[in-house]
Amino acid sequence: MADVTLMKTPAETALVQAFESAKTALPGDGESRAQAFEHFAQQGLPHRRVEEFKYTDLRALLREVAPFAGTPSAEEAKAALAGAKALAGVDALQVPFVNGHFVRDAVDFHALPENVEIVPLAEALANGHDWLAKLSPVKWANDNPVYQLNTSFMADGVMIRIAGPVEAPVHLRFVTSATSAVATATRILVVVEEGASVTLLETHESTDGANHQPNDVVELIAGDRTNVQHVRVNAEGNKALALSTLAAKIGGEALFNSINVTAGAATSRHQVFAILDGENTNLRVNGTTMLKGTQHGDSTLVVEHAAPHCESRELFKTVIDNEATGVFQGKIIVPHHAQKTDGRMMSAALLLEEGGAMNNKPELEIFADDVQCAHGATCGQLDEDLLFYLMARGLPKKEAESLLVQAFLGEALEFVENEAVRESLVGTVEGWLKARA
Amino acid sequence: MLEIKNLVVQIEDKRILNGLNLTVNKGEVAAIMGPNGSGKSTLSYVIAGKEDYEILDGEILLDGENLLEMEPDQRAAAGVFLAFQYPLEIPGVASMTFLKAAINAQRKARGEDELTTPDFIKRVNAAATQLEIPKDMLKRALNVGFSGGEKKRMEILQMALLQPSFCILDETDSGLDIDALRIVSEGVNALRSPDRAFLVITHYQRLLNHIVPDTVHVMHGGRIVRSGGKELALELEANGYADYRESEAA
């Protein structure tokens, strides 16, 4: 293959080999995989001269490709899930994955809540299923190399259909318990039918000390008048290189709130690709990122207002301690016909020590002439006067800092409607702050 | 109680306090008056421990302990309380959360047990009622969207809850209407006790009609230039600070 000669790094060569050896074993006819991998292979791993990856140079960061994880035994899966902590106190329908594989035994398919239907993805790919045609709802995501890799290697996942209002949240719980480094590629498709509503929780945990390489994609198709609340928690192990994508297509008069909370991984990049596909829809995408040591956390966002009269709000809060690096890239696209669009994007970073760095890149691409769009980006330290005020009331410096950081991050968490989830997220923030004191 | 000896302070190469001496005894209410720029607010910040100031000479002793060697939070635990001229707004921090954190931090520093939530709420409610602070104000973020008068009442509420031994009121009367001035003054007067001293910094005699001082000190050019009883405040109100300005010019 001519493309292969373009490969330069050992990691890229390893990915080609991994794909060659895995492609027959992976479920499905392989056509879309082959196509995705071919697209990926033409460009290779994105590097700093590729604009979208300017601040997260995957060619430099991905030196060695970890082997793709095999299916865990029933005991392994059980033990892994028993030790899972993320959003543990929240009452929800558990849809668990261990080492990137759906733990089928953990779901009682005969007693699913009303309006919830779940189809294991590996099975669907192997046997064919009507819903597979709904994968990749955001067409331009196919040009993204991280997404292409997921499409190439996706081994498991679930497809979920929400047919009406669902009371308890649906919790997609990902746990990687392997002690040596593994790669995983999961794909989730959630189809929320017209008028339906659901809270989707997504948590990612993995063992410390291993260079795990998860690449997760969650796709959402939400119909007209739907209400979807999405909360994602990155609690990956301290050596993980975690890549993730949320690709969402939202219908008209709908409400979609998504928040990603990053507290883990050595390097993480969470991409949100959203299309507002019907009028009068309201989108909120928030991020709360806590980085310390030499962690690197990237939040990349593209929102396309494909219909007029939609409102989008994006608020990203990043706290950077020690020598960590944060990245925010946000783009709002408003085509010609999307008049009366109201879009506001804000990224604010707080640097707690000298030596940290934040890269903010907000972009607006507006072709319509009757719109309200704004973006802002700030980068600063804790306010000395506020610190003094708190200390003058008796709070020791670290405690005063913690209170201010909590207040800073709290603004992005306010929109989480489920109280138990919100409290758990506040607990995550408090835990992070306690660990630095 | 508080003893300031030969305090010399500068900020960004500008000398603000110039060999200031002041003693405030237990149970005493001392007023400091002086024109703008005489260094009154600097004095209050330096006692409370704000970082921006360079201490060139002198000492500040509270019950014999040198405050200048302590962090602001240690000074607070030792009994110092500064009611800010411009209380700061802290978005995202609920007033109740802040109050509880402050009380318990000080108790912890003094080796006392933390307050239980019911006990804490009882104390806050009692103090809030006296200062005519509505409950919904306590539910809001600290000082955010508060009027000038509400912010000052919130400062006095904190003072009442923290029970400090040395209270500094930095132009607490600024921005207050007559009713608010009365409420704040009553709150302060209720806290007067033989074990507690006050340093009341003000431009105007008005506040001292409500909080009647034991001693009055005139500050000018970074020093105390005259001290007397409460009648001194009336004299200043009648004659202004012109006398002191002239003496400096001469």
Write the layout of secondary structure elements.
The complex is a heterodimer of chains A (437) and B (250).
Chain A: H1 10-22, H2 31-43, H3 58-61, H4 74-82, E1 93-98, E2 101-102, E3 116-120, H5 121-127, H6 145-153, E4 156-162, E5 170-176, E6 183-192, E7 197-206, E8 213-222, E9 227-235, E10 241-250, E11 255-262, E12 267-276, E13 282-291, E14 296-305, E15 311-320, E16 325-334, E17 342-351, E18 357-366, E19 372-380, H7 384-392, H8 397-413, H9 419-436
Chain B: E1 2-11, E2 14-24, E3 29-33, H1 40-48, E4 54-62, E5 65-66, H2 72-78, E6 80-83, E7 90-94, H3 95-109, H4 117-130, H5 135-139, E8 141-142, H6 148-162, E9 166-170, H7 178-191, E10 197-202, H8 206-210, E11 215-220, E12 223-228, H9 231-239, H10 242-249
Parallel strand pairs in B: 3-10, 3-11, 6-9, 9-10
Antiparallel strand pairs in B: 1-2, 1-4, 4-5, 7-8, 11-12
Helix pairs in contact in B: 2-3, 6-7
In short:
Helices cover 23% and strands 37% of the residues of chain A. Chain A is of the alpha/beta class and 437 residues long.
